[in-house]
Amino acid sequence: MFTGIVTDIGEVLAVQPQASDLHRVKIGCGYDRHSIDDGASISCAGICLTVVSSGEEGGRTWFAADVAAETLRVTTAGRWKQGTRINLERSLKVGDELGGHFVSGHVDGVGELIVREELTDSARFALGAPRDLMRFIASKGSVALDGVSLTVNEVTVDTFSVVIIPHTLQVTTLGALKAGDPVNVEIDVMARYAARLLEMR
């Protein structure tokens, strides 16, 4: 479980296919090497991945995680290559401040930045998402984009918008996004369960 508050920007150092349905990704980060245990969960661009090994190289910490076929298919992980920058967040601990919203790290689909409008100090993003996800996205509700907790501003039939404040533009990969770029989308878990309860009536 995560909060959608990014704590580091990692860099993909290598992508190694292990089989037709599995890739091992090596990611450089700024975390203390001794704080990363094998089996730990780390949100990588909003995708919950399990650490299988870690170490230090050139004075920098790295960790490796396996990415399965389903994750490669439904997220942006299939596009990662050496040099790709990704938002990172360590898993939530009991007693940690919940600054964003509950984020599971289970990406629901890939959206696309359609329009980026530069404001005085911030930016407004208009994004498209798969139609089956749009019914879960509501004005003033929460959504996670590439692992970043955001508040939805406006919603249309097939698009929604968010405003990105200066701090978020600076400390996450969202600041580098441009029209046409894909983003991992995770809908609010509360919306998912509410919809399921209504379906069961």
What does this protein look like?
This protein is mostly beta strands. It folds into 2 domains: about 10-90, Elongation Factor Tu (Ef-tu), domain 3; about 110-200, Elongation Factor Tu (Ef-tu), domain 3 (Beta Barrel), CATH 2.40.30.20. It is about 15% helix and about 45% strand. The protein has 4 helices and 12 strands; from the N terminus they run E-E-E-E-E-H-E-E-E-H-E-E-E-H-E-H. The strands form 2 sheets. A 6-stranded antiparallel beta barrel has the order 1-2-5-4-3-6. Strands 7-8-11-10-9-12 form a 6-stranded antiparallel barrel. A hairpin with a 2-residue loop joins strand 1 (about 10-20) and strand 2 (about 20-30). The longest helix is centred in the last third of the chain and has 12 residues, at about 190-200. It is globular. The relative contact order is 0.19. The model has no long low-confidence stretch (mean pLDDT about 95).
* Average pLDDT: 93
> How many discrete domains?
2
Return the string of H and E elements.
EEEEEHEEEHEEEHEH
Distance between the termini: 29 Å
Biggest pleated-sheet summary: 6 strands, antiparallel, barrel
CATH architecture of the largest domain: Beta Barrel
The share of residues in extended strands comes to 35-45%
Computed over alpha carbons, the radius of gyration is: 17 Å
Number of strands: 12
Broad structural category: mainly beta
Please name the CATH topology of the largest domain: Elongation Factor Tu (Ef-tu), domain 3
Helix content: 10-25%
Overall CATH class of the largest domain: Mainly Beta
Low confidence ranges: none
Order of strands across the main sheet: 1-2-5-4-3-6
Shape: globular
Number of helices: 4
